[in-house]
Write a structure and sequence with these properties.
Helix content is 38%, strand content 16%. The protein is globular. The mean pLDDT is 95.
Length: 173
């Protein structure tokens, strides 16, 4: 089987990370894969916040937990790196473009032996005053909407279960 297709079929979300930091080289490769995601009209509008500083990462996790309906103390599952994806609010394809960025990064992480998980609530996080303050601190002045957080790290446990795909999801004409 083709290696890309095998990676797509076998990639699973990781919800248990070791505390080890991911190397800059690997983070950069994952981010680069995200930057090469398809985008509507080739606008390349999504941006990626790479958060490796533990204090900033923990603040972002606390802010995300504020909106977590499951009330987890760390909705980022102890992953040491957070890749937050945001898009300008005025781009019609922004949500789709940002989603593709996260998908590419999760596949790239998997291909490099790194665990990843898409964490929701980025929209709420960056609508919050604290989230806006972080963007301002980074001199991100445009109006951006959070799409998701891609958390990455060295997996503590590897999920190898592949749930059978549901039937009747493909229709041919």
């Amino acid at each position: 089987m083709n290696e890309v297709i095998k990676n797509i079929i076998t990639r699973r979300s990781c919800k248990s990370f070791k505390p080890d930091m991911v190397s800059d080289e690997i983070i950069n490769q994952i981010v680069e894969a995200g930057l090469h995601a398809a985008s509507g009209m080739g606008k390349q509008s999504p941006i990626i916040l790479v958060v490796t500083d533990k204090a900033e990462r923990d603040k972002l996790s606390e802010l995300n937990a504020k909106y977590d309906p499951m009330h987890r103390t760390d909705p980022f599952y102890n992953a040491p790196v957070v890749l937050a994806v945001l898009v300008p609010e005025n781009v019609p394809t922004a949500i789709y473009d940002g989603s593709l960025v996260i998908g590419n990064m999760m596949l790239a992480a998997s291909s490099l032996g790194i665990g990843s998980c898409w964490i929701h609530r980025a929209k709420e996080v960056f609508e919050d005053a604290e989230g806006k303050a972080l963007l301002k601190k980074l001199r991100i002045d445009e109006e951006y909407q959070g799409i998701g957080h891609c958390v990455i790290g060295v997996p503590d446990k590897i999920n190898t279960s592949i749930i059978p795909r549901k039937d009747n999801r493909v229709f041919r004409v």
